[in-house]
Amino acid sequence: MYNSRISGLGFYVPDNVVTNEDLSKLMDTNDAWIQERTGIKERRHVVKGKDTTTIMGVKAAKIAIERAGIDKDDIDFIVFATLSPDYYFPGAGVLVQRDLDIKTVGALDVRNQCSGFVYAISIADQYIKSGMYKNILVIGSELHSGGLDFTTRGRGVSVIFGDGAGAAILTREEDPKKGILSTHLHSEGQYAEELSLLAPGIGHRWVSDILKDNDPDDVSYYPYMNGQLVFKNAVVRFSEVIMEGLKKNKLDVKDIDMLIPHQANLRISQFIQRKFGLSDDQVYNNIMNYGNTTAASIPIALTEAWEKDRIKEGDLVVLAAFGSGFTWGSVIMRW
Ligand code: COA
């Protein structure tokens, strides 16, 4: 049995910066409310027609491939995590295969929203551990701005989310003490609708109904979030799943060199940091600059932390995520 390790990282965010002040011109909101509740100062939005979820994912992937020191044709498999694919089907993974012009390797899409990248890493890790594949391209990418309600009606959700992509190359590692030590995945479907986007799910309404109604007040195409329920569950599940991973590896909170929490909300990250008694050096947050980029948030934060030399060889790095489903998970790795 092999281990897998991250051998290359990259991220891409659109140039277009949207501040809280910019949003307050579109809806009844203000910088103080957004910063106090979420920590977000600004986020990036794509320029319509320029970037898509796939295009951003490909840009991040090219950087990760180069940094891994491999050729695109060394990639054996693609895993793409997103809740905002270019098309309802096919998934974004095959579009990456096409756009990178990679030989006909398998491409899998993961639909686990904010936990998507952690789920994607876990899947890739199993393929490498089993010996089936050697190099896997894992992408998390989101284009939120094209699907949010930027009127006062949607302000509880639309101020939080931003666009961007992050990518990692997972590579076979022969040393069992290095790389990904374990991954831990959970779900609780009883809360499925508490953080959801119901349309265009065929179980919700048939396309013929939607076309017939053509109702401007139909909000089922916009995300819905029960913010307080999400917050309460997130702080509990983040803590649980980090501890589960540490215990599995006979490690302790004090062993963590770098915790990269999914950038859901700065208040959630700060709660976890306080609970575990971690210093600012042991946690990386960048939600202030990018908002919540869902499946892209962990790979963007991980790449930034690595670029800033905040992660060094031998460090214990922990990834943890919580989101729609509800789903949550963690990754414990030795860098
Ligand atoms: N600007 C100004 N006011 C806003 C607003 C905005 N963008 N969004 C909501 N409000 C108002 C509400 O209308 C409400 O007004 P009311 O009291 O007159 O009815 C008030 O602010 C409080 O709303 P509420 O939803 O109770 O706020 P909150 O304290 O729960 O904060 C979140 C909202 C979304 C910031 C918070 O619940 C949260 O962070 N939840 C977790 C979200 C998350 O992590 N999501 C990602 C999933 S992984």
What does this structure look like?
The strands form 4 sheets. The protein has a 5-stranded mixed sheet, with helices on both faces. Helix content is 33%, strand content 23%. The protein has 2 domains: 171 residues, Thiolase/Chalcone synthase (Peroxisomal Thiolase, Chain A, domain 1), CATH 3.40.47.10; 156 residues, Peroxisomal Thiolase, Chain A, domain 1 (3-Layer(aba) Sandwich), CATH 3.40.47.10. The protein has 335 residues and is of the alpha/beta class. Strand 12 and strand 13 form a beta hairpin. The longest helix has 22 residues. It has 11 helices and 13 strands. It binds coenzyme A.
* Main CATH class of the largest domain: Alpha Beta
Strand order in the largest sheet:
1-7-6-4-5
Give the rounded overall mean pLDDT.
Answer: 96
Order of SSEs: EEHHEHEHEHEHEEEHEHEHHHEE
Determine the CATH superfamily of the largest domain.
Answer: Thiolase/Chalcone synthase
CATH fold call of the largest domain? Peroxisomal Thiolase, Chain A, domain 1
Bound molecules: coenzyme A
Strand content: 15-25%
Fraction of residues in H or I helices: 25-40%
| Structural class determined from secondary elements | alpha/beta
| Spans of at least 5 consecutive residues with low confidence | none
* C-alpha geometry: globular
CATH architecture of the largest domain, please?
Answer: 3-Layer(aba) Sandwich
Rounded to the nearest angstrom, the distance between the terminal CA atoms is: 19 Å
What is the total number of structural domains? 2
The total count of helices amounts to 11
Largest sheet: 5 strands, mixed
List how many beta strands DSSP finds.
Answer: 13
What is the CA-atom radius of gyration, in angstroms?
19 Å
